[in-house]
Amino acid sequence: AMFENLTDRLDSVFKKLRGHGKLTEENIQDAMREVRVALLEADVNYKVVKEFIAAVTEKAVGREVLSSLSPGQQVIKVVHDELVELLGSHEEPLRLDGRQPVSIMLAGLQGSGKTTTAGKLARMLREKGRKPFLVPADVYRPAAIQQLHVLGEQVGVPVFDSTTEDRPVDIAKRAVAEAEDKGYDTVIIDTAGRLHVDEALMTELKDISRAVPLTEILFVADAMTGQDAVTVADKFNSDLEITGVVLTKIEGDARGGAALSVKKVTGKPIKFVGVGESLDALEVFHPDRAASRILGMGDVLSLIEKAEKVVDQKKARKLARKLQKNTFTLEDFLDQIQQIKKMGNLEQLMDMIPGINKLKQLKDAPKPDERELIKTEAIIRSMTKKERANHKIINASRRQRIAKGSGTTVAEVNRVLKSYTMMLKMMKKFRGKPVVRGGKRRKL
Ligand code: GDP
């Protein structure tokens, strides 16, 4: 899953720090040495790592003792804040205002996910009430033009009629004119890719950027290619002046090297991430949420946003409040399970829950499969109201009764209680920290 290896590595570093009542400069230095190795193994650019470690060390050593946090937590907090900074500090929305139509060009190597991203972006913008227009300008592969027509059909967005006989720059010019004519407000230009950076391609892209007023040039890269993605992004940026980056296939990127380096190296923000092959698998990139995920704090906000789309709004808000106030009972756990069941793709959703990484490492970790969820649900349903409100009263005889009532075993009941208390612990640990910036949501 996303950033999984890095999360595991950092977690074991911080576990050691937690044992200390007080941290010495030496403890911090030791920890930072390990963080450094973890980042390098995650394929983060070495210069970026060096600066990162220097910044964290300085802040962690010079830190005043905050009574609400243990020394170990304080170091985690510093690392979290620096990660947010590294990832771009704040969300960078698409520029969609000013003279209409606006034009967005997608550029990148072949196979990076440009065409798919064009379709996803069109879908997302249409949902926001805009009128996108998809423009196939990859004239070297007839299949690419065809692919965009298919995607346009699927998302209900018109596609410019281009052929392999046309020159890309003419396609762009004619498409923008047609958009003006027909009242489309967002032109999305899908361009050709090559296997490697190549001068002919750069010239072609530069020609397009001179021929039509582009508000965005988004560089699309496959996150799994790590530092290679960053090197290519840097090259595109110096030739083309990109305005932002889209990292695709990030759901499978266990290391995170590209995500953590590209902003520092190019100076250009990650605007979107691709999290799957389906057309709804594109997300606005939130540096703070990503940092929380990397540190195994989960991504509660994204989870809630997803929940809000599919489920009962009132319940989702209640859940959000409980998570923030740490009054999360077994009853809420049950609610959450039911919502998760409605939302599909369990593995991905589970990753958003705080502390889930820890749970996965337990020997009897609950697997995110439907049957497990149903069992968990049955177990919680066999508890009394009192038990659901206060898990501490669930003693051995109650456990036996619950197992019997749910047709499971005491071991299975224990496992559910253990996942629940682990979750509580995780939330408590991060309480009071600005991990989740409450409620503020910017528009796309
Ligand atoms: P292009 O050559 O740059 O236009 O790349 P495509 O859009 O054709 O994508 C190449 C492959 O990557 C296709 O199989 C896509 O389904 C896949 N792909 C694109 N974005 C994502 C993503 O975010 N996650 C995953 N898993 N696959 C993706």
UniProtKB/TrEMBL annotation:
A GO cellular component annotation in the UniProt record: signal recognition particle
List of residues binding GTP: 108-115, 190-194
All residue ranges annotated as the SRP54-type proteins GTP-binding domain in the record: 269-282
Keywords: Cytoplasm, GTP-binding, Hydrolase, Nucleotide-binding, Ribonucleoprotein, RNA-binding, Signal recognition particle
Primary location group: cytoplasm
EC category: hydrolase
Gene Ontology annotations of biological process type: SRP-dependent cotranslational protein targeting to membrane
Catalytic activity of the protein: GTP + H2O = GDP + phosphate + H(+)
Family: Belongs to the GTP-binding SRP family. SRP54 subfamily.
PANTHER family for the chain: SIGNAL RECOGNITION PARTICLE 54K PROTEIN SRP54 (PTHR11564), SIGNAL RECOGNITION PARTICLE SUBUNIT SRP54 (PTHR11564:SF5)
Annotated HAMAP family: SRP54 (MF_00306)
Protein name as catalogued: Signal recognition particle protein
Protein species of origin: Desulfolithobacter dissulfuricans
Taxonomic path: Bacteria, Pseudomonadati, Thermodesulfobacteriota, Desulfobulbia, Desulfobulbales
